[in-house]
Amino acid sequence: MHPFWELQDVVSEVILLLSKADKARVARVNKRLWELAIPHVWRHVRDVRYFFNLFPSDLWISVKGKSAFPPALERELQDSDWSRFLFHSKTTKTIYYDIGSLRNVIPLEILSHSLLSTSFPTLERLSVLGQTVEEGPVNIIPLLLRPSLRYVKFHTQISDFKSPFVGPLGTIAESSSLSLEEMALTSLWDLGPFRDFGTKAIEFQTGLRRLTLLSMSDITSMVEGAKHLPFLEELDVGTSQVYSRLPGQDFVSGFRSLTTLAVTGAPADIHNLLRSTQSDSLARVALAPNDIRAVGIYPELIAEMQRFRSHLLHLQLTLNVPSTWEDLEPALALVRLQTFGLTQRGSNPHTITDAQVRRMVDSWPHLTRFRLKSESTEGLQITLSSLAYIAFKCPNLRKLAVTFEGRQGLNQEFSNRVDALPESSEKSLELLDVTKSMFDEGDEERLADEIFRLWWPKARFCQSSLVSEPSVPWEIDDTYSWPWRGNRFITADESPRLLAPVPDPPTVETGLALSARVSPPPIAQPFSVLLSNSPIMHRFWEITELVLSVIHLLSKGDQARLARVNHRLGKIAITEIWSDVPDVRYFFFLFPPDLCLWSRHVESYPAALRRPIRTSDWDRLVLCSQNTKTLQHTIQKGVDEVPDVIWSHDKLLIAFPNLQSLNVSVLRNVPPGLADTISPLLRPTLRKLCLSAEISRTGFPFHSALRRIAQDQTLSLDEMSLSCIWGINHLLNAGSAAVRSQRNLRRLRLYSAEDIAVLSDAARYLPYLTELDVGNLGSVLQPSNIGILDWSADRSETYFRTLVTLRASGSPIGIHKFLRGVSSKALADVAVRIDIPLPAMMKPDVCLALQAFRATLTTLEMIISGAFAWEDLEPILDLRGLRKFALTYSNSAVIPQVGDAQVLQITTAWPHLTSLSLNTRSCRANITLRGLGYIASNCPNLRTLIVGFNGTQQGNPSYLAPCDKDAVRQEMELVDILWSHYDPNDELRITASFLRRWWPRAHILGSRMDEEKARRWEEANRASRMA
What we know:
Elements: H1 8-16, H2 20-26, H3 31-41, E1 44-45, H4 83-89, E2 94-98, H5 108-111, E3 125-130, E4 151-158, H6 166-174, E5 182-189, H7 193-204, E6 210-215, H8 220-225, E7 234-238, E8 260-265, H9 267-276, E9 284-289, H10 299-303, E10 314-319, H11 325-328, E11 339-344, E12 352-353, H12 354-363, E13 369-374, E14 380-381, H13 384-393, E15 399-402, H14 423-428, E16 431-433, H15 444-455, E17 460-463, E18 480-481, H16 506-509, H17 544-551, H18 556-562, H19 567-577, E19 580-581, H20 585-588, H21 619-624, E20 630-635, H22 644-647, E21 661-666, E22 688-695, H23 701-711, E23 719-726, H24 732-741, E24 747-751, H25 757-760, E25 771-777, E26 805-810, H26 812-820, E27 829-835, H27 845-850, E28 859-865, H28 870-873, E29 884-889, H29 900-909, E30 915-920, H30 929-938, E31 944-947, E32 974-976, H31 987-998, E33 1003-1005, H32 1011-1026
Parallel strand pairs: 1-2, 2-3, 3-4, 4-5, 5-6, 6-7, 7-8, 8-9, 9-10, 10-11, 11-13, 12-14, 13-15, 15-16, 16-17, 19-20, 20-21, 21-22, 22-23, 23-24, 24-25, 25-26, 26-27, 27-28, 28-29, 29-30, 30-31, 31-32, 32-33
Antiparallel strand pairs: 17-18
């Protein structure tokens, strides 16, 4: 498989976007995906009953309907029956358990078995819902309390001494292995022992960081139990009803580590809790006073929060009791507030006016979220003037929700003239929620487009109801777009926050379940119920481009199996399966099996048809070829068993309508006279064509294809490659005509072991050619029947005017003459491979020809095979604009070509180098540490260095690295020392004393060293970097 699938974290994130059913199907693609997907299938399970579905189906008969007794075992329970249960429970992190759901459904022998206590070893979150107080003869909640647990939630409506929660709470209080971080206890009525054991559990869980306590009864003792918890950061206390019945009591001081406090209850109780809080880091407070007996809140309650003004950033008030502005006025002293929310429920005779809004804005200059919502417009009398004041005075505001009067009769003093806002204000606000504001009929769009849009040009406008409170008290909700333009929800572009994964619908989750009404599935099909569902897929899988990029990394076989996951993935995967086909013959196996007998013998001839071919026989081939973009076709003797009548059939001409790349290879043993199998595959959509052969002769398959390319006016290739190692003379005429006919060619490659200069002459007038790879260029340009100019003699005409990249190989004379014919004014990248025949020596002609491109040339690569002297290369030092230079050569013991002196010349001539490679194949080092010092001093922008050097102390008797800080180059990323020579076990000294002092952040390696030396260099690289 592709290395991508070895990145477990990345693949797991992709699998998480699938529904539970599709995760199970992905697990069937191959073993690797099974290992990655199965843990996610069983990681979060919404009902513990699902696991009991993993027992063998013959162990007991499921109970249909209500029963007074649990089912009996049909046979003796064995340890092997637990294998699947224990295996899948190993990865479970979250479990939901509804008390009573297992009663009279699961045999008692299983619920009381010792192996049940060994399951779920990594369980982190446990939520238990108790709608009834009866658990049955076996309480499994204590068996689910694991040392790995971090979150526990117990919820019941009524509790008494028979409550199944009493025992687990006692276990939590007594267990020394449990270390919870979060606990939520909810009991609506009659707490009784639930309160007492809950208090003990809270007191003994000293590692708690988040605690939620909700009830309609007295929970004072439970709150008291949490006051001395040393790490408690978040506390949520209150009721789930409108009016509290908590008696007013004073709390002892505590809660010294709180950062978040949310309280619902009587104002007196809230006041007492605030007085008992001694935290010096309280940053978030959400208060919801409600008490039918209270006349209203009082200023002392809000004034109590002034003790936290140095660190209080977020304040949310939800008022269910009458209040006045004087009650809220002490909040103005909280000068560091960044979020303020005020929600008024019910009728309130006392209102918030424009004057109070201005005082709030002036008192809180750092506001980023501001919410003023009222159930009725009588509660808030805010006009457009307040919104204008907010727009000008709150430059950091990101979200604003306000209930205001937008009717023109109440905004007569407001001027429609809107002055320009500061640039910071125009870019700040992201969301405006108009809540239950009042407008004149049909006036919403005028306000939105002519006023609000001028104040906040990039904000999104929405209108939420008072009921839609956000899950986080100090966040502002965003729902329907405003003004209402049609019956639609906000789009993903309008609200990126809504792109969070949507929970799977209940029908998908029950795919894993063992329902009390159905029997367990058979062992061989653990996901039989799963596969019968049709879940709603995550939005990610609707983005075809992203899904294709992931599917592309799978093998063809795995893509075919993935296509069976569901219809959506099947449609995308099939497209990818047939988009890149390694052999055109695979398509012919889509024909009906009764059409012909496909023979696979090496010496066989094309298969004969068993019956006449029908039009319907082509349906599957034509359908699958619709998606084919890249096709390879290999012609070899005895394997091309496709009947000739298929290659010549008219239906083949309508196949592959979107073909863009065609790669044809002809092997050496192909006899002449074969049918033309290339021309039927040429399409007007084709952009890339590669023709490759070992040897050419008369009657070669390329002849007719090249003639077709030259004559077909519908073909417009961008890239073309023609490679024929031997016998290129047989293709000169047809190849030259094909190259000249493709006027839109951007990239061209011509290669042969013989002289190909005549064929390259056909490309010199192509008007858009930017990349050219040509070789082998012989020593003499031979005239031919198509004629060729001697470019070195005639400079009145210019050729290859648009070249940007050039790759050329051949003899020095052939390359020199070719370069003299190139007149491009944009040539930036040149690579030449020079083959010097023995015993000749290289001459400076090639390097002199490169000087014609000194204004544009930035990348130069030279590979020299044969003898040369440094003086032959010196002309390239005039190419002052070079950024990348690579020289690969065979060093000579008689004539040392590149040493410290030459390195000094190179680095002085090209100070802007970003990449430098000096590689000799003979592994003789004439460059010493002094030469590397020249590179470090003269090339400040270098990122990559590849060089072999002599690092022995004998070769560097007295050289020391310069101590000048200016010589340190922080930009170097990679230093490859190849095969460098040095004294044994001297890697650390060279690295620390020289290389690391010059290039402190570079990664140092030896790519051409043996395994032992490469390992020691890797260790020296790590040790010197740490030092």
